[in-house]
Amino acid sequence: MAVQIDCDPLRLDRERIYQYLSQQSYWARGLPRDIFERSLEHSLCFGAYDEAGSQVGFGRVVTDRATFAYLADIFVLDGRQGQGIGKQIVAAMLAHPELQNLRRMMLATADAHGLYAQYGFTPLSRPERLMERLEQEVYQRLADQGQTSGA
Question: Would you say residue 151 has pLDDT above 60?
Answer without folding.
Answer: no
